[in-house]
Design goal:
It is a single chain. Strands 17, 19, 22, 23, 24, 26, 31, 32, 33 and 35 form a 10-stranded mixed sheet that branches. The N and C termini lie far apart (about 100 Å). The protein is elongated, with a radius of gyration of 36 Å. The protein is mainly beta. The chain has 2 helices and 35 strands. The chain has 3 domains: about 90 residues, Immunoglobulin-like, CATH 2.60.40.10; about 80 residues, Immunoglobulin-like; about 250 residues, Jelly Rolls (Sandwich), CATH 2.60.120.200. Belongs to the glycosyl hydrolase 16 family.
């Protein structure tokens, strides 16, 4: 009996092994083929179709785990002997090429389709800023395929030097307005547009601070009144700082509060026939302003007890009900009061440092001829500091020490302001002398530079 049991056990083992072999044989008999056998794509990515043939009744396809974030697979006809796998490769946003795979499977059968994607096309510069004299620039192009360059502006000349570089030349700009153009670099489905900006002829006399480029300026050489880009404030006396003047836009008693004369902006303050005092306050690009930069103006100040001219900046679009002064910040590049003739000052105001609590950060200097000669007043504003200059000599530095908004609210765009006040808390702190009227603040130019 014991011998019989052993024989039966042997037979059961034999049958079990035979069935397992039969299953393996069935798997090995499955034919699974895919065409093409690999996918190669540029950095732009794309959509590719794999034709799948399977002798079994069912198959599927998927991206391997290591590339599922940038490869997507959609299967059609997976219950038929012939079908397709649509492979979508996302654009490569990294700096390097990358590899992945698509797995076609039926039961235990696997076919691996390698997917290779090249690095995205890159160009060494996407913005070109040219002076008005014309310049030559060399751009480096990195791409895995052939590329071409096109342009539509006659003042831009482009020459492909070799497989890696393109030469861009701007012709001299004789116009008093700046101009903009573009050029397109194309490789397969990839395209990079490079913007080209060239300043007006007037910038030939402009000394640009090292590391900066001119982004906006007004030399006041065209027309008789301020043009697009300037906004006049209109306010009654006492609007701020208990000042005595009324700010208007236009003429009163036949005299304008702002006018362009001999290539200068004149901001006039005068007593009109109605006995009121009128003056001008104007904003440059009030709706956009600039975040960081080098801001510069060349100005001759008026004389007289009661004058209060200023070149300063305030935040764009600020909601003073939710972000009131001084917490919103204020940048005073230049101020002077006529009773303290020729003493110019620079200041900043914020929640922690402002004149209402006698903590404002201010520096002043008697330059002797502020009311008889033109001087250049400037501010360099970076994420790390505000520096103020008179004729290129540093007057004050206020550093961002990283202690928060109460000390450094200067993290959004500001716009420049030019105004001539009469009297007020500071301008009239020793009274006013109306015999000084009319008075004029003369501005030769206003320029804004930003980092390259």
């Amino acid at each position: 009996m014991k011998k019989l049991n052993i024989i039966l056990l042997f037979l059961l083992l034999f049958i079990s092994c035979s069935n397992e072999d039969a299953g393996n044989l069935a798997t090995d008999d499955v034919t699974l083929e895919c065409s093409p056998e690999k996918v190669e794509t540029s950095g732009a990515g794309g959509v590719y179709t794999l034709d799948v043939t399977c002798s079994d009744s069912e198959w599927t396809a998927l991206a391997s785990d290591d590339c599922s974030s940038w490869i997507a697979v959609k299967v059609a006809g997976s219950l038929s002997s012939k079908g397709t796998a649509t492979v979508t490769v996302s654009a490569n946003t990294s700096k390097d090429s990358r590899n992945g795979s698509v797995i076609i499977k039926s039961g235990a059968k696997r076919v691996v389709i390698p997917v290779t994607q090249g690095a995205p096309m890159s160009v060494s510069q996407r913005e070109i800023y040219s002076n008005s004299r014309g310049e030559n620039f060399t751009l480096s192009v990195v791409t895995t395929g052939d590329w071409s360059v096109t342009f539509n502006d006659s003042w831009i000349k482009v020459e492909k030097k070799d497989s890696k570089t393109v030469s861009v030349t701007t012709e001299p700009n004789e116009s008093k307005t700046s101009r903009k153009g573009t050029l397109d670099i194309v490789s397969g489905a990839e395209k990079i547009t490079v913007s080209v900006a060239q300043e007006s002829a007037e910038d030939r006399e402009i000394n640009t601070p090292e590391g900066y480029r001119l982004v906006w300026h007004d030399e006041f050489n065209e027309g008789a009144t301020l043009g697009i880009g300037w906004t006049h404030e209109v306010q009654k006396p006492g609007w701020v700082n208990n000042e005595l003047q009324e700010y208007v836009n236009g003429s009163v008693s036949g005299k304008r509060v702002t006018e362009l004369v001999d290539g200068k902006l004149n901001i006039n303050c005068f007593k009109a026939s109605d006995g009121k005092i009128y003056s001008g306050r104007v904003y440059a690009n009030v709706n956009t302003g600039w975040l960081y930069g080098y801001f510069e103006a060349r100005i001759m100040l008026p004389k007289g007890k009661g004058t209060w001219p200023a070149f300063w900046m305030m935040p764009v679009g600020n909601n003073y009900s939710t972000n009131p002064w001084p917490g919103c910040g204020e940048i005073d590049i230049m101020e002077e009061v006529g009773v303290d003739a020729n003493i110019v000052s620079s200041s900043i105001h914020c929640a922690a440092y402002n004149h209402t609590i006698n903590t404002q950060k201010t520096a002043s200097r008697n330059i002797g001829t502020a009311e008889s000669e033109f001087h250049v007043y400037a501010c360099e504003w970076t994420p790390d500091y505000l520096k103020f200059f008179v004729d290129g000599t540093e007057l004050m530095t206020f550093k961002n020490e990283g202690s928060g908004k109460n000390v450094w609210p200067f993290t959004y765009a500001f716009y420049p302001i030019l105004n001539l006040a009469w009297g007020g808390d500071w301008g009239g702190y020793k009274g006013v002398d109306e015999s000084a009227l009319p008075i004029t603040m003369k501005v030769d130019y206003v320029r804004v530079f930003q980092k390259k």
